[in-house]
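In this section we walk through a basic example: taking a raw amino acid sequence and producing a predicted 3D structure, encoded as discrete structure tokens. The instruction is simple. Fold the sequence below.
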Amino acid sequence: MSITVFIRYQLDPFQRDAFEQYANAWAKVIPRCGGDLIGYFLPQEGTNDIAFALISFESLAAYESYRKRLRADPDAKANFDFAQAKRCILREERTFLEGVPSTMHQHTG
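The resulting token sequence is shown next.
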């Protein structure tokens, strides 16, 4: 059973560029540590202080292994430290989701 971690961030809207830099840094770190990065999503219209990230894993055990590798990764530590120094993330929530297979990757055309 695969899982997707849905991360909801409350941002300091005046630190949007710092959060984008933070998100970009994960593009190499997350796959290297074992996550399938679906993407980070910044606010465009409407609410200006909420962003999201989606990362998939083969299982909850794979996620736990990923977390251990992430804690040992120097680039990950540097990115966490960057976000703390910039104070761009005010709050972070994680939800673990299971996809409904028949609805995944449906395209029209």
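Looking at the output, two observations stand out. The domain at 3-97 is CATH 3.30.70.100 (Alpha-Beta Plaits). The chain has one domain: 3-97. In the next section we compare this with other chains.
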